[in-house]
Amino acid sequence: MKIFLPLTDAESVLPILSDIPLFGGMSDRQLSEILEWLERGVFAQGEYVFQKGDDPSHIYIVKKGKIDLLITDQGIILQKKSLAGGDCFGLASLMAMQRHASTAITREESEVIVLSKQALLRLQKVDSELFSLLMMNIARELARRLKLTDGILLHYIQEHKEDPQAVRRDPPPRDETKISQ
User: Fold this and answer.
1) CB count in 10 Å sphere of residue 21
2) Rounded to the nearest 5 degrees, what angle is found at the Cα of 114, between the Cα atoms of 85 and 120?
3) Candidate CATH numbers 2.60.120.10, 3.40.50.720, 2.50.20.20, 3.30.1300.10; the one for domain 5-162
4) pLDDT at position 104, please?
């Protein structure tokens, strides 16, 4: 597991945070306070940030560099997203408390800012207002991503509408026996 160090260059991070939806709606005081909870890490080119199946431990923000988010299954590798400065990842796994479904690997030397699961839990006890705002922003970001995924699925269906196996036009019939029980 990667060791993360305290954030020592808070002034260089503050402009990045203010542009990230995760920290939207936060006052200057709250942004300064959140800096106290953040850590930093540097990854060499080709180094894994996490791999599919790993337990989630952090929310990651790319400070600089490029990181590829990959989905793999049965020898198929799909680049889900290429992340760069200001992009956040690891949110869904941490919030769902499920192992990572994807792999994050650096395309070049990269620096990340992280908020650990432990820091998040401590923040809940220390500043419930800031914690609540952060949780609301995380929920909004996950909802945006879900909407984007819906759009991708609808695009796929439009591209494959002639393939009866790819598209189901009618909803499945309701199983009335399950409803009455």
Assistant:
1) 13
2) 135
3) 2.60.120.10
4) 97
Task: Give the helix ranges, DSSP H, for the chain.
Answer: 10-18, 28-35, 91-96, 117-126, 128-159, 176-180
Q: How far is Cα 100 from Cα 50, in angstroms, rounded to an integer?
A: 8
Please say if the pLDDT value at position 166 is more than 60: no
Sheet architecture: strand order including 76-83? 48-50, 103-106, 67-73, 76-83
Q: Is 86 helix (H, G, I), strand (E, B) or coil?
A: coil
CA gap 40, 163 in Å, rounded: 48
* Local structure of 176: helix, strand or coil: helix
DSSP 97: T
Q: Is the pLDDT of residue 175 over 80?
A: no
Distance (Å, whole) CA 4 – CA 107: 20
Ordered by start, the domain boundaries in the chain are 5-162
According to DSSP H, which parts of 45-102 are helical?
A: 91-96
73-128 pLDDT, tens digit per residue, is: 888 888 889 999 999 999 999 998 899 999 999 999 999 999 999 999 999 999 99
